[in-house]
Amino acid sequence: MKKIVVLLLVASAFSCKNMQAVASKDNSDPTKYIKVIKEKDLKKMLYVVASDEMEGRETGSKGQKKAGVYMIDQYKKNGVSFPKGATDYYQHIPAAYLNAKRNENLQDSENIWAYIEGSEKPDEVLVISAHYDHVGIKNGEVYNGADDDGSGTVAVMEMAKAFAKAKKQGHGPKRSILFLHVTGEEHGLHGSRYYSENPLFPIANTITDINIDMIGRRDVEHAKTNNYVYVIGADRLSTDLHNAVVAQNDKYTKLDLDFKFNDPKDPNHFYERSDHYNFAKHGIPAVFFFNGVHEDYHGKGDEPQKIEYDALTKRTQLAFVVAWDLANRENRPVVDKK
Ligand SMILES: [Zn+2]
C-alpha cells in the first residue's frame, strides 16, 4: 500500500515536471522544424527571385524592387512581420550613400527586413543576412544570380518560415531574430555597411550575424560531392560560435565543413568579401556559409536550373540549426578574441 502511494507520488511529480518543461518552452530539439525547410519550397522561390522578370536585381533597379516585393509577400504569407521599431519591411538607403565611395549612379535602394521577437531575451538579437542584389543586365543578357545570392536570399526566407512555425507551436526563439536582406553587396557591401552604421537594434545587443552568400552550387575542389560547405569567420571573434557550428552540424546535418578559406593567409580573403564583415568589424561574431566560386560566378550562366537543390536545402538546414542554437542557448556567444 505504502509503496504504491510512493510510486504514485513519483509518477505525479514526473508529469508535473513534464508540464513545466512544456510551459517553459523546451527548445532543445529543432528536428521537427528542420523538416519545415524543404527543397521544393526553396526551388519554387528561387525560380522567381532569379527569373528574368527581376532583371538581374541590380541595386536600385526596378527588377530588384520587384524581387523585394515578392520576398515581402512571402514573409506576409508566413506571418512574419517587419521589426519592432520599423514602420514597414524596408530600410531605405539614399542614392547619395550608395554612391559616396565611388559614384556608380546607383538609385535609391532598400534593405529588406523581417523579424521574430524572442520570448525570453527579446532585446538580444541574432541577425541572419544575405544580399538580394546582383549585377543586372549586361549587353542585353540578364544575369540572374541564382547562386549569387538568390540561394542565400531564399535560404533566409525559408529559415524565417521554420522559425515562425515553431513560434506558432509554442517553440518560438528565446532571443529575437532579424532576417536581413541587404542591398548593394556587389558594389561594395553597401547595404550591410549602412545597416551596421544605422542599426535598428543596438550593436551591443546583436549577438551574431549568420551570413549566407552562395550555397547552391559546388566548386571544382568538390567535384565528387556537394555534401560540404565552407565555413568562414566563425572563430575569428568567438570560440563559442565556432563550436556551435561544429556541434550542430555533427548532430543534425553532417556536412563536410571546409575551413580552408577561413585561413587568414588565404589569398582570396573571402572573410572581407561578404556582408558579415560589416558586423565583424564592429565586434559582432559572424559566420559566413559559402560554396566557393564556380565557372558561372558573376556570369550569365548563374541560372536556377544549375542549382543543386539538395545541397541548397542541407546548407540552409545547417544555418537553421546554428541559428536555433544561438537563439535558444543560455548564454550568447562570448567574444574572446579580437
Ligand atoms: Zn554574393
From TrEMBL:
<feature type="signal peptide">
    <location>
        <begin position="1"/>
        <end position="21"/>
    </location>
</feature>
<dbReference type="InterPro" id="IPR018247">
    <property type="entry name" value="EF_Hand_1_Ca_BS"/>
</dbReference>
<dbReference type="GO" id="GO:0006508">
    <property type="term" value="P:proteolysis"/>
</dbReference>
<keyword id="KW-0732">Signal</keyword>
<feature type="domain" description="Peptidase M28">
    <location>
        <begin position="111"/>
        <end position="319"/>
    </location>
</feature>
<dbReference type="InterPro" id="IPR045175">
    <property type="entry name" value="M28_fam"/>
</dbReference>
<dbReference type="GO" id="GO:0008235">
    <property type="term" value="F:metalloexopeptidase activity"/>
</dbReference>
<dbReference type="InterPro" id="IPR007484">
    <property type="entry name" value="Peptidase_M28"/>
</dbReference>
<protein>
    <submittedName>
        <fullName>M28 family peptidase</fullName>
    </submittedName>
</protein>
<dbReference type="Pfam" id="PF04389">
    <property type="entry name" value="Peptidase_M28"/>
</dbReference>
